[in-house]
């Protein structure tokens, strides 16, 4: 229940001044223990339900659709790795010495990075179900076209437009999840959503092993059928998702009026005003980038993108060097992804239980580094090398959702979160360009340069997490020592978001 009782003898600031010291009174579930953003927060949970039941209802109407959407987006993005095992490079006459295959991977990230922030702005203006489903249909169509290309130029063109239409999927979905859940509820939801990537990797390997047997059917090679069938699946799902994808809480038709009012009230108590109440302008973007933490958040994610995409794009090729056939390679790519999903959910559960993020970024990163360390030193024991791939996926894909959730949910105010989340993902995906050139054909089968690069960027991410943790801890401490009453209006507090002196960051 979200409720604030008035006391004519005390103000919010004087009430907070009487609380215990910082170390004992800090509550990461709300922006500030005594913050009151609106006078209309005297809203009790509707009598016909409870808060727990309402959250479960939101889970069923929000999370499955966003997870399926991103699963298909990631599948269409990385299925080129499965296609390469079935002869894409040979049939399109891609020159390994001139790294044409690597360039085809790289060009995806050019529009994907550039249009992250504009996409989130359009998401707010066009409504999520319209923007996300439209982009989904278009990148599905491009995937089909990718299965019909006849040369290197055609592959470059389709990869470019695939990146263009996928640009809004990840930051848009992350932003939308943040508009439905309180900070204390977010980590497991973010991790479950992000783990769509691991499920896509596992699902992609299984699909590729089955579709690859269609080689020669109707004159098409197996790798072409991978693109065509997976692209058609995406287009069909996109059409249905136009009617199923959720919008912002105040626009949800599957909630009655009482439920909408209550959902908005509990979120305002935790985060600030509703996402749809104000548009984002150029000045907002400029003010947001004056905050040092925005750049640190980008490097936190950037450091893990390199090993993440390094694995996603090149794992089937690495596994094939262990001596497996084409079908066996696809099947052996599945278990590491499945293990990553389980480990990520375990990390998220503990992170939410302890209401802590920092240590739960460093532990998985250490696991990932251990995996790469094994791969860089062991070259003649395929069982050990295969086991190391489990550590790489489990560590990398468990740390990433914690990092993104930690950073995004610490951004108060929805204009700051919208731009900040898009920036983190957009800048972070520059690492995807590095990843595409980390594993070159000339370095096979040991790939020492690639593994070394991945270790270095894991260390960069860990260092950035340490800097971010030290920064938010210091700012929390300084705000506790600063004067309480700065004369800010409720509107000014909301506009400042997490820059509001009453805001407290989650460590």
Low-confidence stretches: 1-41
How much strand content do the residues show? under 5%
- Count the beta strands: 0
Helix content: over 70%
Regarding quaternary structure, what we see is: single chain
Tally of alpha and pi helices: 24
Compressed to H and E, one letter per element, the order equals: HHHHHHHHHHHHHHHHHHHHHHHH
- What class, by secondary structure content? mainly alpha
Specify the overall morphology: globular
Report on this model:
- There is one protein chain.
- This protein is mainly α and 507 residues long.
- Helix content is 70%, strand content 0%.
- The chain contains 24 helices and no strands.
- The protein has helices at 12-17, 22-25, 51-85, 88-91, 100-107, 109-114, 116-126, 128-146, 152-166, 169-178, 183-194, 196-211, 222-244, 257-270, 282-288, 292-320, 326-332, 334-354, 359-377, 382-409, 414-428, 430-436, 448-481, 490-496.
- Helix 5 (100-107) packs antiparallel against helix 22 and helix 7 (116-126) packs across helix 8 (128-146).
- The chain is globular, with a radius of gyration of 23 Å.
